[in-house]
Amino acid sequence: MLRLSVLDQSIAAAGRPHGQAIRDTVALASHCEALGYHRFWVSEHHNHPSILGTAPEILIAALAMKTERIRIGSAGIMLPHYSALKVSEQFRVLDALAPGRIDLGLGRAPGSDGLTAYALHPMANERPQQFPADVRDILAWISGEPLAEGHTFAQIRAYPAGDTVPEVWMLGSSNYGAQVAAHFGLPYCFAWFFTDGQGAAEALRMYRDGYRPSERHPEAIGGLCVWALAADSEEEAQHHYTPRARWQLLRRQGLYTAIETPEDAAAHPYTKAEEAVLDRFREQAFVGTPDRVAERIETLASELDVQEIAVVTWTHDEKVRRKSYALLADAFGLR
Q: Tell me: the pLDDT tens digits for 101-152?
């Protein structure tokens, strides 16, 4: 049975304080828990005018205090910025706050530009080379297992200890993450929304072909994260999708802005070439009535043989976004 989950990025909305985006994320987690979603993930980006979620480990702690059943976690922690021990300690603390509900999604990408990555960690360019070793150490530290024989830090433990262990996921938009996930026997989620699906089929194939069963995950678990928006009518859905389409157009030009209202996004003058690009975005987007969006999600999951889909949604009006998640929950029968 296909599991449906949520990714939230705390998006900047034009005319709204940045702090409100963080508070909206916390409120959305409670909303999605009530709707029956399986898990709620938050992302990590830095120096990004559009995406304000910079510290998922802090945000997850707030989510832990506002939810009771839904799994909560990171999508992901950009590991090259941090020591494996510190990440392990943070997620051991989070597991103490919400035992058995914490997901540690890991990524190798910087989630930022090169200069910002350097500001976060002076060895930013070299750290990705240590990624597999850091993943290995985290898996040991968060589960209380010994590190590799002869490891320099073999005597160090990550506290607090506990009876439950965060579930580690590998996240990515390339073949590299898929290979690391397969090597360690971890669940793998491909960022479909980030690449518009390019590379997904190949990455998931490599993941399954190379999968080495682990004690916690005897079989491969594949997932996708897609951008989707549902509304009562196709016209309404497309109306609220307009700011996202404009944002995608600006991203191609290297511009990142707060998401506008649908009216403001539609009012901009566009060239014929830009209008053609926007039309193509609309054709490819998972946008429309809940039944239509649900059908497209289920078809994609079936075609790529994944067990879980995470949905990310941007709207200027928070009520529209909450309703979209409610409509999809009903279409999938989550409640």
A: 999 999 998 767 888 988 998 887 777 789 999 999 999 999 999 999 999 9
> How many domains does the chain fold into?
1
DSSP for residue 42 = E
Q: Is residue 243 part of a domain?
A: no
Q: pTM of the full predicted structure?
A: 0.96
Rounded mean pLDDT of 76-97? Answer: 96
Is the Cβ–Cβ distance between 51 and 10 less than 8 Å? yes
Binned at pLDDT 50, 70 and 90, residue 20 comes out as very high
Cα–Cα distances (Å) from 23 to 16, 18, 19, 45, 318, in that order, read 12, 9, 6, 17, 11
CA distances from 229 to 18, 299, 323 (A): 22, 16, 9
Within a domain: 97: yes
Tokens at 282, concatenated: 């609309």
**Any domain includes 314:** yes
**Residue 200 lies in domain:** 3-232+287-331
Residue 245 counted as domain residue: no
CATH number for the domain that contains residue 91: 3.20.20.30
Torsion of CA 197, 203, 208, 211, to 10 degrees: -140
